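Q: How would the structure tokens look for this protein?
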Amino acid sequence: MGFGFGPPITPPVIKQLLIANAIVFFAQLVTGGGDIGRSMLTDLGAVQPFAVWRQGMLWQPFTYMFLHASLLHIGFNMFALWMFGPQLALVWGPQRFLRYYLVCGVGAGLLIATVPWLLVLLGWTSAVALTLPTLGASAAVYGVILAYSLTWPDRTIMLIFPPVAFRAIWLIPVLLFMEYAFGPGNVSHLGHLGGVLVGWLYLRSDGSGTRLLPSLEQIRWRWRRFRMRRRLRAVQREDNVWRSSGNDRRWH
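A: Here is the predicted structure in token form.
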């Protein structure tokens, strides 16, 4: 087995997405006078739950995925897209890949615009969450990584930092763990999880990777089985304690 860095071929659909994101990022810099936070594109295009559902800015769940907050932000997202997207695009074809990419991004954008409303109504968070903007291609990229890991689950992936090797099927759990453990506080966990969830539903619906994607019934069955095994282990521990205490002696 050999090792390689990056894809051998970058299909046109990947190049076009990279160029589109780069052009929009440059436009953010220009319209913001070098400060992305002051860019009109950022204000209009980033997802804000209040703006989407109360001000009618229904385009935001689409536009946010082409906006980025910094050079490091766009660099990481485009690097991940370039690493994992090309082989998937070559196998699927450009139309299917682009459709999947957009569905993951827009689906996660709708969740970002909707879930905070539910949390506010339930009293689990403050109304400030409705005005927080979210931007970046991470949700769509996470969907691509999910599809890659399910298409080639046994491929070996080596992280740059830390230099750890593991099977591709563990990519999403590892990335989510690193994000929660070491990521900055302004990371949109809802967006990333939303991209994975929408990608999972999409792949389930079109029959892709069903061998590795459990259905809801299978998940419930596995959860019940897990709880039964926990109860069984608890009974076994109690039985072992009882026996070790000498209480199982029989009198004649």
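The longest strand covers residues 156-158.

Residues 218-245 form one domain.

Upvote if useful.
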